[in-house]
Amino acid sequence: MKFYDKGFxxxxxxxxxxxxxxxxxxxxxxxxxxxxxxxxxxxxxxxKTFNKENLNESYNEAFLKNLFDKNQKEVIHKDKQNxxxxxxxxx
Length: 91
Description:
Blueprint: E1 6-11, E2 16-22, E3 25-32, E4 36-39, E5 42-46, H1 47-54, H2 63-69, E6 74-79, E7 84-89
Antiparallel strand pairs: 1-2, 2-3, 3-4, 4-5, 6-7
């Protein structure tokens, strides 16, 4: 998955929602729960399966949720071994 556009990160009691837009069209709508990730383009997956298919199976199950839940202005995760770069910049 590669996205270089603007989006929103909304935190709710039971999940974190990540929405990314390109030219006003939503290209990613993902809800990250404690035990699963749901995207609008596929049914929910457990965290281990999501990591294996989209990141790397070596990642901690809570990795993505923890990354998006950080309250820092800029979050950067570089993993050269698995060719993964995640940048989150908050306005």
